[in-house]
Amino acid sequence: MSVTTTLSSREFNQNTSEAKKAADKGPVFITDRGRPAHVLLSIDEYRRLTRTDQIADLLAMPEAAEVDLPLGRAGDVAVPADLG
């Protein structure tokens, strides 16, 4: 279960080690004048969130209709690898 923590910029600056520990349990929102300005994440969570499938990302983009994807022809067949 993810726990969300919110810290002011001042609290973050005064207690960075606690913020890093909190980021292991969930996102840490850092506010500036009461408004969210930054988010601290563990590296594992960052990598999970940024893992993408390039083709799916291209298809989700509004301008995807103008992108040419290099797809094989219907007549292309697999060729066995020569391991010898």
UniProtKB/TrEMBL annotation:
Q: Which Gene3D superfamilies match?
A: YefM-like domain
Extent of Polar residues compositional bias: 1-17
Region span, Disordered: 1-26
Tell me which Pfam families the record gives. PhdYeFM_antitox (PF02604)
Function (record text): Antitoxin component of a type II toxin-antitoxin (TA) system.
Instruction: Tell me the protein family, please.
Output: Belongs to the phD/YefM antitoxin family.
Protein name as annotated? Antitoxin
Species name: Massilia agrisoli
Q: What is the lineage of its organism?
A: Bacteria, Pseudomonadati, Pseudomonadota, Betaproteobacteria, Burkholderiales
